Amino acid sequence: MKFNAPRGTNDILPPEIKKWQYIEDLTHKLFTNYNYQEIRTPIFEYTELFQRGIGEVTDIVEKEMYTFEDKSGRSITLRPEGTASVIRSFLENKIYGQAQPTKYYYIGPMFRYERPQSGRFRQFHQLGVEAIASDDPALDAEIISLGIRLMEELGLEDFELHLNSVGCKSCRPKYVKKLKSFLIENKEDLCDKCRERIERNPLRVLDCKNQSCQSVIKGAPKITEHLCPECDEHFSEVQSFLDILNIEYNINPLLVRGLDYYTNTAFEIKDNALGAQNTVFGGGRYNGLAEEIGNRDIPGIGFALGIERLLLSLDAKGIEVAEEAGIDLYITVIGKKAKREAFRLLDILRNEDFKTEIDYLDRSVGSQMKSADRMNAEYTIIIGEDELENNSATIRNMKSGNEEEIKLSNLLEVMKQLVDKEEI
């Protein structure tokens, strides 16, 4: 029987994993500089958390969640996104009793049952940030600037920031009522999916990519023209702080995002090199989420970035973020006695942080040298009976071909010199 990875999942193999590690290392460094601390939440949660947090009439909850019953009959769901879990943790662990705001970041796998396509998988990976317990518009600008800074650090510059406000529980219902009336008037020109959305979740119609729906949406009332004074002021302040940071943005009144918990600021970073599915990351405010899942009126804002889609952007631009690293030294051995001495030297070198390898397949000298070449070894050394007896061996620079006779007892000191000057 042959086993394959489930559809919509994939193995991340060397050397590709180097790119992932580079992005993760950069994330840890950059986000820490902004005073965000890492949080790790469970891979699965009780299903109701996502039903209440994300919204029961969203595509994620209705169609895309991996939900099952555990052995006690409880409904469990693999997390489809990170924010609801972070807020659950914040409330459960009473972090609101500590100094605020709380700033978290996370990196990890998420799960959605959707049609696999370029950059979109059923198990995918996100890195994200959440800033909790402050409604300051400057924090909105900080969150956006942090995401942009990450893109820039990776060498990505040709992208667009789309910005909107989706209002609050005071002004948004009034807007939704007007939008709903407009959509009913134009119902015949909408796709079947959007006709269903009119009653259940009319804001989602604004996000439809169907060409016929797009034509209708162009004439729809704009949410930015129906904000309450408080939301309008907040949105203006967010823009003013982005202006301070010299961050360019496009006001996009049709931007609503795919989750029900968003309020006020909503944003997306788009990379046109990716085609139709061009959103690299997005986020916004969710001032009602903590109240929805924990009965506490605590504001928050964050974003999530898909690592697979980020890698697509890097590939589309021809940006290499991490070169395949080779090893420092490959020790070629001849005979059992030499193997034992090489194994001892291997341990000494590794304890001094040298990437070192030997043969474990009892291959010929020629095959061992080919293996060293495949591993992109910078240096090789051959140890046999004669080398042991004379306490000497020849170390070779695999790039230049230069060789040098050394004392085996001085191998560690020689390697310390060679990796510094990188040539013989």
UniProtKB/TrEMBL annotation:
Keywords: Aminoacyl-tRNA synthetase, ATP-binding, Cytoplasm, Ligase, Nucleotide-binding, Protein biosynthesis. L-histidine binds at E81, G82, T83, R112, Q126, E130, R257, Y261, Y262. It is found in: Cytoplasm. One of its GO terms (molecular function) is catalytic activity, acting on a protein. Residues 1-314 form the Aminoacyl-transfer RNA synthetases class-II family profile domain. Its EC number is 6.1.1.21. This is Histidine--tRNA ligase. InterPro entries: aa-tRNA-synth_II (IPR006195), aa-tRNA-synth_II/BPL/LPL (IPR045864), Anticodon-bd (IPR004154), Anticodon-bd_dom_sf (IPR036621), His-tRNA-ligase (IPR015807), HisRS-like_core (IPR041715), HisRS/HisZ (IPR004516), HisRS_anticodon (IPR033656). The keyword Ribosomal protein does not apply. Its main location: cytoplasm. One of its GO terms (cellular component) is cytoplasm. GO terms for biological process: histidyl-tRNA aminoacylation. Homodimer. Pfam families: HGTP_anticodon, tRNA-synt_His. PROSITE patterns: AA_TRNA_LIGASE_II. Signal peptide: none annotated. The keyword Transferase does not apply. It catalyses: tRNA(His) + L-histidine + ATP = L-histidyl-tRNA(His) + AMP + diphosphate + H(+). Belongs to the class-II aminoacyl-tRNA synthetase family.
